[in-house]
Design goal:
The complex is a heterodimer of chains A (160) and B (185). Chain A is an all-alpha fold and 160 residues long. Helix content of chain A is 85%, strand content 0%. Chain B is mainly α and 185 residues long. Classes of the chains: A mainly alpha (160), B mainly alpha (185).
């Protein structure tokens, strides 16, 4: 267990303890909810983990870095950004996936673009967003989000 | 959506996910029996990532459960509606980062806030923070991509999201003005 995981678990345990002190019933309800969402997420967790295993086991690092590595240029980053915008997986699971493509030779820029577009832009939820918030606002938010995601990615690539 | 309808929909999604997992497993077994040399690499990576997930995911789920139960939608709407300026933006970010549900839950809240007269910039910042700077996400990002990556992306995201809020507000105001002029109002 690494230090990050330990710290996070300790913080959550303290929070849980406080919740129990404040309101036992509500705390139990939160735990039940947590258990339910954990089970709901499990199949996706396994799918992502298997995908990562296959990705790192089968695809040689050279291949990945050729498309989205340091030398691949802006085209690769844009491509990854678009993939991130279209893909619909829980944001929490995008991080291990991102870590695995980073490990296999993708650039920081590409990985940052992937995560940022994946979390900020929702192609699947776009129709709902348009319905509730109006076409103008929804399209502007998703469109500008894509541009700033790419900007963030390039700045991160320059710094890290 | 009615509760029963929602339940049926969720059940369908569950079945679909498990089915998808089953197909994935079958594909993997076939692949690995064709390329037995890869078994070691695939299983050891999968195992490593599985452990890394399992030491953090339950905690993340608990914190999401706690916030969902202890902080209601009404509290969020109440606090976001009445503040503007820097305080409004800061609050939009803070409340957006709280570990509560997926983005589509935030849309109706945003619509309610807009109707109540909240500023467009605050709502955009709120929605974006909700989408991509949530505390559970930051935790998992820290675990898998490290502190440097996570903090830098967090800072950049906050800066750009605020900028985006201001830009979209300007565009929408300018657009509204234009249409009202052309209508002769």
């Amino acid at each position: 267990m690494n230090i990050t995981a330990i710290i996070i678990n300790v913080i959550v345990l303290v929070g849980l303890l406080l919740a129990f002190i404040k309101d036992r019933k509500k705390a139990i309800k939160s735990l039940k909810m947590a258990g339910k969402s954990f089970i709901k997420m499990l199949p996706m967790v396994f799918i992502i983990i298997i995908a990562i295993g296959l990705l790192l086991g089968f695809v040689p690092p050279g291949q990945i870095s050729r498309f989205v590595g340091d030398q691949s240029g802006a085209g690769g980053v844009l491509l990854v950004g678009i993939v991130g915008a279209i893909m619909h997986i829980p944001a929490l699971l995008s991080f291990p996936l991102a870590a695995s493509i980073l490990e296999s030779g993708a650039s920081v820029t590409a990985v940052a673009a992937f995560i940022t577009t994946l979390t900020m832009i929702g192609m699947i939820t776009l129709p709902l967003e348009i319905k509730i918030l109006g076409k103008k606002m929804a399209l502007l938010r998703n469109g500008i989000s894509f541009v700033i995601a790419i900007l963030i990615a390039f700045i991160m690539g320059m710094i890290l | 959506m009615k509760p029963e309808e929602k339940q049926i929909k969720q059940k369908k999604k569950m079945i679909r996910d498990w089915l998808f997992l089953g197909i994935t497993i079958v594909v993997v077994i076939i692949l690995l029996s064709i390329f037995p040399a890869k078994i070691d690499a695939v299983t050891s990576t999968a195992q490593e990532y599985f452990i890394e997930m399992m030491v953090i995911l339950p905690a993340v789920m608990v914190i999401m459960g706690l916030f969902a139960v202890f902080i209601s939608d009404e509290t969020v709407v109440k606090h976001l509606g009445k503040n503007s300026g820097i305080k409004g933006i800061a609050l939009s970010i803070l409340i957006g980062t709280l570990p509560t549900g997926p983005l589509y839950i935030a849309f109706p809240m945003a619509a309610t806030l807009l109707k109540k007269g909240a500023r467009v910039s605050n709502i955009i910042v709120f929605l974006s923070a909700w989408a991509c700077i949530k505390i559970p996400q930051e935790m998992v990002e820290l675990q898998f991509l490290g502190g440097e990556f996570m903090f830098l992306r967090l800072i950049l995201t906050v800066i750009f999201v605020i900028l985006m809020g201001v830009i979209i507000e300007r565009v929408i105001e300018w657009n509204d003005k234009k249409t009202s002029i052309s209508k002769g109002v």
